[in-house]
Amino acid sequence: MKVLVIGGGGREHALAWKLKRDDGVSQVFVAPGNAGTARDPDLINLDITDKVALREWAQAQGVALTVVGPEAPLAAGVVDEFRAHDLPIFGPTKAAAQLESSKAFSKAFMQRHGIPTAKYQAFTDPALAHAYVDAEGAPIVVKADGLAAGKGVVVAMTAAEAHEAIDFMLLDNKLGVAHNEGGARVVIEEFLEGEEASFIVLCDGEHALALATSQDHKRLMDADQGPNTGGMGAYSPAPVVTPAVHERAMNEVILPTLRGMAADGIPYTGFLYAGLMITTDGRVKTLEFNCRMGDPETQPIMMRLKSNLTQVLLSATRAELDRVTLDWDPRVALGVVLAAAGYPLSPRKGDAITGLPADAADRMVFHAGTATAGEEVQVSGGRVLCVTALADTVALAQQGAYEVVNAIHFDGMQCRRDIGYRAL
Torsion angle, CA of 193/117/130/183, rounded to 10 degrees? Predict the structure, then answer.
């Protein structure tokens, strides 16, 4: 059986790494992949990104399953293209992917269907946005309404920071946000206090199957300081997601979302990531939806998954997730992201990476922003690698990951030294 993974980041490397281990899978292709997937003799990089060209290639090759990793191909309608030609593909349609590609769509959807979230307003006019901040005060959250690779959120602790974020997103657009039709827009939300967790499920339009719990670290620096990023590390399981919180997340967020999307005429299939804020009294509110697995959460989750992922995802394409159970390694997996100099605003590319170890059963280096130049592996993006370790405890997984981190070098390398601290 041939499997295609669309994407070239750390999430896609981890998915491809897991899929190639499944019984019944003969070849795994990654389009376009990265230096890590290129170095793996069991994976084949494919230099195609156009959705029609990918579909034609998949048809010609007899690909049995396609899995979409990142948000941009989903928002561009790659799932619609494959489905129109009866090719099995796991992911949401372009219409359903608006849950991520438009913060304004997502917030209006949650409000309409009674899904707990922060109160908000959306603005295209900077003056009105500034007036709203003046009226509401700080702390307050400003989000770019569009795809910003996980960097389009500013948690403003002062009104001045909020005003700066509004100008940055509405007037300057220095993040290169892929805005929705009609130009730049921001969503401004109330600030929520509590602990964040990543709640990721598989959806088949009718049923949802929860993956192992996980938690990531969004801020660039130790002790949750510095700017928000796409994620500087993650671990699984997440102790903050107690059985009671898990039940509330499913019953108050995930299942109402599936029912609401179906009622709106856009059934949801694919990975669904709910970023949750868990309050001190155990209530949950939805911070955001992503229409894909999280990165770097995917890396620890894939290290722990023992089930045949290919068969699980094929079941999802047939709306049969209610017949599936998942088998998990009871150990803890923890991943540390190594980021480029200048990340998150202006990552430097081209630095040579040394000290990369061989793959091991309990320690893996998943590549994200890497490329090959001759025999050399170089930095090609903001988040470069995710060093992931599996061990009996959080402390041992942390120790194992940082032992590998300490052997890797590239100029300007940034990483946090406290990944997993909340679970210790």
Answer: 130
